[in-house]
Amino acid sequence: LLCPPLSVADNNAKHHTDLMSTTQLIMRRGQSFSIHLKFKEPFNPGVHNLVFTATLGNIPDKIRGTKCVFGIPDFVKRAPNAKAIWKAELSPDQKGRNVVVNITPPADAPVGKYSLFLNYLGEDKKLGHFPLIFNPWCTDDSVYMENEEKIQEYVLNERGVIFKGSGNYISPMFWDYGQFEDDMVEIALTLLYVSPEHLTNPMKDEAARYNPIYVSRIISRMINSDEDRGVLKGQWEGPYIGGMSPTHWSGSYPILKRWYNIGCHPVKFGQCWVFAGVMCSVMRALGIPCRVITNYESAHDCDKNLTIDVYHADWGVKEIPSPDSIWTFHVWCEGWMKRPDLSPEFDGWQVLDPTPQELSGGVHRCGPAPVKAILNGNTDLDYDVPFVFAEVNADCNDYLVWIMCKTISTDSRRVGQNISTKSVGSNKRWDITSHYKHTEGQAHRIKYVSSPVVSAAVSMYWIFYTVLQVLGEAFVYRPVFVEMTFENPVSETLRDCTITLSGSELTKEEEEEIRFRVTVSFYPRKAGKKTLMADFDCSVFKNIKKSIPITVQKYNLF
After folding, report:
1. Is 124 an annotated catalytic residue?
2. Same domain assignment for residues 497 and 395
3. Where does the record place the catalytic residues (predicted)?
């Protein structure tokens, strides 16, 4: 028996993972993949058996669903309570010594790093190893999404928009999710393997990974680093010593790759939109549909009474501090999955928030909280529904502290404004406030700007006078030249100028120049529609961003 290498190109293309790797087999559960076997003599399934074994982890177990023995013909005896049953079938019209076998992992198989073995005539062969991830195209998978256009947006789209600013001055920021970058699936799975759940009980953890509810809760805690070896360290005001300002980041891959390369130690620093952007990348890399949500006038209800209470002191009375607060905006994720632990009406979008705010199960994480439960006020449901409900629906109470507290005013409309996400198939803002709360009063007027505002006049000037253009066509593995032209709006010399382009950094200092031009080059690794983002920093300004769409073509020598 000869076992050629697993067919990567064909299988990955069928599983929508061809953009993730051209050398590593990456499979989705609930969908078959093909292996090619070559025998020394014609194979006869009626005479000899092919016995396959799929294993996950160091101590795989049939009852837990992390090990399955199956065959052609499938005469394997299994325990009645065995989980996650794989199957193998011969491709039709197989004859002779060359045989194609279709192997199907079950739609409820735990995700992770699998090994596949074959026994034939008492001879054991290791066929290979591969990651197995969720499958939104599979009707039996808990993350199944019926609409193909939405799958393209929430699983396969690397280019995103995250909304910042304020409720009446909404500012879109382009974000590169980068879920198809090198090693992204490996990095996403590493996040699971270094989690406290896995380190404490690896067998239990691996078995529980059949469930996207469990996996998403792990990811939510592991994006922040408050209790574990998570990806990002949060910091909400400067100076940002020993790391990057949160406003520096334009994408997830540089953060995740740095975390991976430095031994899974936290990268400094992040705030809510960075935490959410990174989590969205990990979710999409693992096959769970995900999108980023911005809530304006977002409440932080610390005492869990579903109100934001502010106490004003009268003369001679000590003011009572309140732990509650309202943020100008807050950003979280939504993941798409079924909720078999609840009722079917709560299937669909679930709020997941990796920003460390309050404890959930003893650690800083939030969700998954069904959006439909938040809308209808089902605050008794898992997970963390009351906290998210308060973020979008809390009443704001003002009290006058004297001999006793007296209510001055109550505002039930302030919190939860202009809840926003990127539209499917375009960069336009989609207002989904009605998904979270029922209509109260009149709509608020929204003013748009075309790029993130860092400091009003200067930033808008830079948006107008910053030019980013591609010089010529772009081809895979060929140098692409990009020209950036800047005009200095102030008389001060700009020093320590740094331009960051898709992870490549160029430092240049210009003396006493009002306008200067920089040309840099890079080598695209994959074809398709991409977004190039440039970030400019100097001694006077920080985080001036510009983006431009680029279509990268395949390069043909002939």
Report:
1. no
2. no
3. 272, 330, 353
